[in-house]
Amino acid sequence: MANIITLDDVLDATVLIGKILRKKGHTVHTFTEEEDAIKHAQNNPVDLAILDIKLKKMSGVEVLAILKEINSSIHVIMLTGYPTVETAREAISLGANEYCVKPIDRDELEEKVAKVLNIQQ
Questions:
Q1: For residue range 55-69, what is the model confidence (pLDDT) as tens digits?
Q2: Which top CATH class is 3-116?
């Protein structure tokens, strides 16, 4: 299955996403610090990044741009508790594949991950 990183400033959110996606057979690395997630992506293969838009030091959109520089074929799903059309448009224009609204719905997350990775459910 896929190598996935998840980055959120709230530890519980990364733990939840990790649990959901590990049950589907994915390898998931969870991060609460932007630098750690970026460093991991520089040194390891990553198929999918799940990024919160509001982080500690940068925005998820900034991290998205850096990850795309590291690996232009990386798939990205953005998460937000504060959905706006502008944020969605900016994330999609920078290469995000999908957009999820918090609180995270297990079925929606599984469906979007499968869609982005082209996995038949």
A1: 999 999 999 999 999
A2: alpha beta
